[in-house]
Amino acid sequence: MRLPRLYRVRQKLNPPVVPDIAAAVNSEIRKLPLAGRLTPGGRVAVTGGSRGVVNIAAILRATCDTLKALGATNVRNQGPLVSARVPVSALGKLAADPALKYARSPLATTETLPAKAVSQGDVSLRADIAREESAVDGTGITVGLLSDSFACNPPAFLPGAPTSSKDQDVTNDELPSIINILKDGPCPDGTDEGRAMLQLVHDVAPAAGLSFATANLLYMDMSDGPRRLIRFVAVGR
Q1: Which residues contact 65 (CB under 8 A, 6 or more apart)?
Q2: How far is residue 175 CA from its own chain's centroid?
Q3: Domains held by the chain: number
Q4: What is the reported pTM?
Q5: Which among 107, 141, 170 is the end of a domain?
């Protein structure tokens, strides 16, 4: 076998050098329209990509120092991650800031959630684009799901954490009004994981039919559940 001629190539890059990292970071952050957004007691989460950046730790440390100087509190960083605190009322402005690449709230209370919360999976799967450009919304499709329970309506895992009942989910359009429940349970021990999963399905395919069966009551529920769901869609029982 005759191989083609190979050549050795060396790539030499000339990256820019910043002599004073802290001063440069401070200068760039202060150019951002942050006036009024950072208030005492608020929180903000900041993260930075480290690929190709030699002094990422120094950059993020300087970022934290500048945020503190602007009024942010509870600012902490570990490696390329930074967390801080900002008021909920400023989150919309923060999200619209072109300088922000990524932010995530680690905690939420019932009062801060909208009536209808759309799953991030909707955008991750680009289902919103598919619905708009291809007019597909799940019409004519039924999604069957197995989990522990659907309508046990358990309390929140942590006091004050956001939670809802099945009826509230229907009222808030988190779920359609008609869902085929073949078998629910086990209540009151069920966590309603199945209802949460169907909320995600409803976000992605809002016109799809939904069916649910528990997999946690009997030994055969898990193995026989898919067949029962398929049979229900096929013959209605």
Answers
A1: 22, 26
A2: 18
A3: 2
A4: 0.54
A5: 107
